[in-house]
Amino acid sequence: RRRRRRRRAMHLYNLTLQKGGGIQCAVYGNFSAPKAQEIVASRNKVLELLRPDDAGKMQTIVSTEVFGVVRSLSAFRLTGANRDYVVVGSDSGRIVVLSFDKEKSAFVKVHQETFGKSGCRRIVPGQFLAVDPKGRAVMIGAIEKSKIVYVLNRDTSANLTISSPLEANKSHVITFAVCALDCGLDNPQFAAVELDYGDADQDPTGEAAAEAQKHLVFYELDLGLNHVVRKWSEAIDNGANHLIAVPGGGDGPGGCLVCAENFIIYKNEGHADVRAVIPRRSSLSGDRGVLIVSSATHRTKQQFFFLAQSEYGDVYKVTVEWMPGSETVSEVKIKYFDTIPPCASLCVLKTGFLFAASEFSNHALYQFQGIGDDDDDVESSSATLVETDEGYQPVFFEPRALRNLHPIDEIESLCPVLDAQCHNLTSEETPQVYALCGAGSRSTLRVLRQGVALSEMAVSPLPGNPNAVFTVKKNIADEFDAYIVVSFVNATLVLSIGETVEEVSDSGFLGTTPTLSASLLGDDSLLQAHPGGLRHVRADKRINEWRCPGRKTITRVACNNRQVVIALSGGEIIYFELDSTGQLMEIEKLETNGDVACLHVGPVPEGSLRNRFLAVGSFDSTVRVLSLSADDCLQTMGVQALAAAPCSLLMLQTREGGLYLNVGLANGVLLRAEVDRVTGQLSDTRARFLGARPPKLHGATVRGQPAMLALSSRPWLGHVDLQRRFALAPLSYEALEHAADFTSDQCPEGVVAVAGSTLRIVSVERLGDAFNQTSCKLRYTPRQLTVHPDRGIVAIVEADQSSVPYDERAGPEGVAGEKKVKEESAAKMEGVEGGGVEDDDDDDD
Predict the structure, then answer these.
(1) Strand (E) positions, 765-825?
(2) Cα 479 to Cα 467: distance, rounded to the nearest angstrom
(3) What is the side-by-side strand order in the sheet with 659-665?
(4) Which candidate, 774, 761, 772, places its Cα nearest to that of 824?
(5) What pLDDT is recorded for position 817?
(6) What is the dihedral of CA 218, 221, 224, 226, to 10 degrees?
(7) Burial group, residue 818, by CB count within 10 angstroms (0-12, 13-18, 19+)
(8) Of 746, 837, 592, 724, which is closest to residue 106 (Cα–Cα)?
(9) How far are the Cα atoms of 32, 135, 137, 152 from residue 77, in angstroms, in the given order?
(10) How far is it, in rounded angstroms, from Cα 178 to Cα 245?
(11) Spatial separation of the C-alpha atoms in residues 257 and 304, rounded to whole Å
């Protein structure tokens, strides 16, 4: 029975609706290409590859669930290689080496070595990672006792190899920080801040614990003898908590900077200590010290310097003065640089950007506007260090607005959420989540709405309510659109896209009739389909007209750059093709049993003369796939019965070669079926209810791939996500009637849409997030919120211990900082009509 019960045991895993926003650690490197500026970030159990685009926006290239807790990350590169690997320390009890496969668009496991039990245990390595700058070895350490070193090398096929583990364990030792020293081509060395509690564990009086001393220990990996030894140890300040490796091997003096409470100390074997005091805020009380929590190294061929951030968010520029050719450091300088939210990791990119993975607020990408060379900034130096009877004399400064850094982009993060409630205070279709986030003066009230956010690039009024909108390029080789064609009940408006959008009359389109379709053909000619016929505008402005026979009119149109299919009243389908002379030639006709509800033909595949398939929807609640091949033109290849009449069709082709037919039904359901590329049969049909209105399907472009915009009672976006799966996400925007793909210099992947009597140009923001956020800045750490649903009021209790009152704060955290974002926050929160926010502030000075 026990065996049977064990066999029936079910093992489950969970996928959250939205991934965690907090970043535990981030590393910089070239992971997908030799010169790609990328960042690998850990969001608890999700590993992400981030890359800034040309506009400076952080884009998520790939997001992978690891189903574990990532505790540490480090990047390394083998000697002579041009791409970086990622080594991961987690709760799995294994060290994992990953590389990014560009073809698969995924992280590939190169090596996985087991060294201990699973779980975040204090004696199982994984908390600390350090990699030799030359990529020859990696040390993975635990909080207590255990340290393991692996030798990295290449085999005869130039593939990465990893050795058996080399232990460097010592009992009764707690580790606070680990870093890899730059020793050039000498044996790899690692530095660690350790505290031996062996005597304190045996002393019941507590005297040994009070006298316990931290030590800086150097470990050396002997590559010849293949073992690790404790090379050097020296007592250091008991406030030491962070290590920064100093470049060596001819590029610098080597050694490391020990970041302790109120001090940064340069230490190296056989070198005297060089100590500099960390500048502190003038408003900071004397009993509170300054600790460095994160750092980054900027290194060029001529110089190097460090950016170190304190727990209060102040960033300092640390420089080391030394004589080239020697390893003697003469001076350590610390200069106030800027103030940003406290970060878990800082990454300096070679393109002049700084990525800040914040601990308690949104993550940000900054651009360097200076490197802290201003003489008026406060600076402390080891050469001017003054020692008094009470200790070393401190250096004070006043926080100011950003001067050396300019914010470029933000990645929203809710971490930490202190309280959250779900209410529908704005009487919308779906309730909103009201969450209290952050800590201190950077706290916010976030209002979360389900759906992907759209950013408005432009909004223009129109003389009436349009019934369609299209975008057209001038030439087939153009990258950006040239015209926006807006169709009304009895007219057509053509707008030219340039520095400004203005009406034109020389496009060749007929302006006295509604437009059913406007497109660019393969010979750089324009095609306008209207109820009376087809208007073919050649590249030399010659115009060819095709008129409907008798009293028939065109009801539906589908086209690409070489094929045109029209449906006439009465159910007749006529197929045209563009021949080699640039003429539209009538190829075939087909009589159907009734009027055609919708048509669609996909784009011409690369290397082909035509698209093989035409989708036709009928009012008898069926959709058919017809052939457009020369030997069986307009012959039925596949039929699918539907639950309601189809209203819109769209064929999408994926990069992997899959072809899918999307059908919008009159009952508000979106149906998706796979089309067999050989037989044209429909299979694997899936349905989803989108809204009360029949979905209108339009093509779009997302991340360079074809996507679908479904307009129902709310807009939806169908796209291929980072895992290469089709995802359908709602858009947090008002209902749209018509839309078309839009591309311009300022908006490379946008949508031009019609809402009522307005024309809007929008683009997708933060694709992949299940919620979009609006935030309201708070003054102290929020503790709890409550809601009065009838009056639409949110009441918040805020409190901070030993904080500076809001009215007395200087710099970006006080009145000046709030004034800068007040108008922006008010605009974002104006959707809460008739509601408000009440604060109950309590601070203990």
Answers:
(1) 771-777, 782-788, 793-801
(2) 27
(3) 646-653, 659-665, 669-675, 682-689
(4) 774
(5) 57
(6) 130
(7) middle
(8) 724
(9) 13, 5, 11, 10
(10) 10
(11) 14
Residue type for 46, please?
Answer: V
Q: What are the backbone dihedrals phi and psi of residue 693, each rounded to the nearest 5 degrees, phi first?
A: -95, 150
Place of tokens 């933060």: 766
Interval 601-654: pLDDT, tens: 999 888 888 899 999 999 999 999 999 998 889 999 999 999 999 999 999 988
Beta strands at 705-711 and 715-720: parallel, antiparallel or unpaired: antiparallel
Q: Tell me the C-alpha distance between 610 and 613, whole Å.
A: 9
- The SS3 of residue 623 is strand
User: What single-letter amino acid sits at 401?
Assistant: A
Burial letters 584-614, b for 16+ CB under 10 A, else e:
beebbebeeeeebbbbbbbebeeeeebbbbb
Q: Are 452 and 717 in contact (CB under 8 A)?
A: yes
141 contacts: CB under 8 Å, gap ≥ 6: 125, 127, 128, 129, 130, 147, 148, 175, 178, 192
Residue with tokens 């082909």: 608
CA dihedral 298, 300, 302, 307 (to 10 degrees): 0
Instruction: Identify the sign of the CA torsion 766, 767, 773, 774.
Output: positive
CA 530 → CA 553, 556, 568, 616, distances in Å? Answer: 9, 9, 11, 19
Q: What angle do CA 621, 624, 625 make, to 5 degrees?
A: 160
Q: What is d(CA 337, CA 372) in angstroms, rounded to the nearest whole number?
A: 6
| Whether residue 455 has pLDDT greater than 50 | yes
Q: Give the single-character DSSP code of 441.
A: G
Alpha carbon distance 362, 384 (integer Å): 38
- 559-571 b/e with 16+ CB inside 10 Å = b? bbbbbbbbbbbeb
Determine the 3-state secondary structure of 693 from DSSP: coil
Is 141 exposed, middle or buried, given 0-12, 13-18 or 19+ CB atoms closer than 10 A? buried
- From the list 243, 254, 363, 334, the residue with the least C-alpha distance to 294 is 243
Amino acid making up residue 526: L
Task: Give the whole-angstrom CA distance, residue 352 versus residue 368.
Answer: 6
Q: How many CB atoms lie within 10 A of CB 313?
A: 24
Residue 815's φ and ψ, nearest 5 degrees, are -65, -40
Q: Which amino acid is at 356?
A: A
The pTM assigned to this predicted structure is 0.81
- Are 294 and 346 in contact by the 8 Å Cβ rule? The answer is yes
CA atoms within 13 A on the CB side of 845: 7
CA-to-CA separations, 811 to 9, 225, 372, 710, 718, in angstroms, rounded = 58, 56, 18, 47, 44
C-alpha 255/C-alpha 329 separation (Å) is: 10
Determine phi and psi for 706, rounding to 5 degrees. Answer: -60, 140
Q: 742 near 763, Cβ under 8 Å?
A: no
- Cα 202 vs. chain centroid, distance in angstroms? 51
For 289-311, b where at least 16 C-beta lie within 10 A, e where not — what string?
A: ebbbbbbbbbbeeeeebbbbbbe
pLDDT category at 507 given cuts 50, 70, 90 is confident
In angstroms, rounded to a whole number, what is the distance separating the alpha carbons of residues 781 and 832?
23
CB atoms within 10 A of CB 512: 8
pLDDT, tens digit, 9 for 90 and up, residues 640-668? 999 999 999 999 988 777 899 999 999 99
Residues 6 or more apart from 726 whose CB is under 8 A from it? 654, 660, 672, 718, 719, 720
Structural tokens at position 389:
């009877």
Compute the chain's Rg from CA coordinates: 32
